[in-house]
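Sharing in case it's useful to others searching the archive later.

Someone asked me privately for the predicted structure of Cysteine-rich CWC, so I'm posting the question and my answer publicly. Question first, with the sequence:
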Amino acid sequence: MNTTKIKVCSSCESQFSCGDISVENKCWCNDYPPIFNLSEGGDCLCPVCFKEACEDKIDAYIETITPKNAFKNKAISLPKTEKLIEGIDYYTEDGNMVFKAWFHLKRGTCCGNKCRHCPY
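And my answer, the predicted structure tokens:
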């Protein structure tokens, strides 16, 4: 029995489905990095607003990273997510995936391939 909950986005006020509440941690938002505290910003956001909020928060964090402090960053210690998210982990350019700094920070090391967004 799929028991989804309908919520209203606290940012844009659109309605959206909030996962399967009969199964713990079974919501679309669990594919995203756990970078928000529940007390930040009220209730849930719709998928579009949530993704934008994640991108903004990650971009602000990336701006604080230098090659010297990259090896001791927050992204390494977060629980691993199985799904890569366009706009957060990568973007597409000429049909190719270009990994963003967040992806590299989650990995925790430099691969040595001179990646465009390598923070190391």
